[in-house]
Amino acid sequence: MNSNKTLALGALLLASSSSFAACDRESLNSTIDNYFVALAAHSASGLPVARDVKFTENGVALKVGEGFWKTAGTVVVSRDVLDTEICGTVTQALIEENGREIIFGVRLKLNDANQISEIEHIIAREEEFAFRPEGVYEPRFQNWEAILTSEERTSRAAMVAAANDYFDMFVAEPEVSAPFSPTCHRWENGTHTTRAGNCSPKGLTIIHGDRRVPVVDRETGVAVAFVHFARSLPDMHMFKFRSGHVEYVQSVIGPRADSMGWPDDTSLSRRKPPEGEQMSRPLNVTE
Question: What is the pTM of this model?
Fold first, then answer.
């Protein structure tokens, strides 16, 4: 190999390693920490925000510095999902706002320059569906951030498929199924909405709108889907996998919105509503 080719290959390897290093778990955790510090300070001036950053809050496009940026307090407790493959993160948190706690979900995406290029907030306050902030972290047996062994991990494709299929199970007789654990538990805005360890939504006829599964953390076994729930509510569902099965589901559901504000992932198959089928109300917490 001549010297020019050697230098070119060396530069390529260096660039590749630098790109990978920018998306390791430590750096993604730092990005999240810095974001919440800036949010509480009501100023993004110290954040590496891309010039073309896209920011939505509960499905509405805003400028960085608007919306929750004006009212956010300090984080009470949080859990993070880190996707080192695509340089993305999701955090579910309880945050102080005007003297009370609200439920907060945020997705961040970094570009090739290690700048924040996408920000997506979903916020649930007391008027939102099933709002019970103390329930978000009440069940102490949940462990969302522990690193799984290689034998316990599930492929990215299988996690995305299961998360997608879940939303097609809102029918009387689903044609698909998700691999739920026999003791699966689900919380929606902090309210426990499962009985006898059954996370299946079978029997509830609800047609959902746009959906995406943009963040997958294979190391902790968490996939996060964003969906226009019942074609009316901005929603973030977190699915915790272990050994191929969904053990827990946590969701953050915001107020009514016309859309999620992001392009639909058309690569995800989904059930089409039969002609004349009516969209039912959002899930009742007693069911």
Answer: 0.88
Distance, CA of 91 to CA of 215 (rounded, Å): 11
For 44-62, the pLDDT digits (tens) are 999 999 999 999 999 999 9
Q: Is residue 272 part of a domain?
A: no
Q: Which band of pLDDT confidence, cut at 50, 70 and 90, is reported for residue 214?
A: very high
Token pair belonging to 48: 């590496």
Judged against a pLDDT cut of 60, whether residue 16 lies above it is answered with no
Cα-Cα-Cα-Cα dihedral of 194, 231, 227, 31, to 10°? Answer: -110
Q: How far apart are CA 102 and CA 123, in angstroms?
A: 7
Rounded distance, CA 250 to CA 13, Å?
39
| Structural domain containing residue 177 | 150-253
- For residues 131 and 103, the answer to whether their CB atoms sit within 8 Å is yes
Cα 174 from Cα 66, distance rounded (Å): 41
Q: Look-up: residue for tokens 């691999």? A: 179
| CATH number, residue 226 | 3.10.450.50
| Separation CA 85–CA 213 (nearest Å) | 13
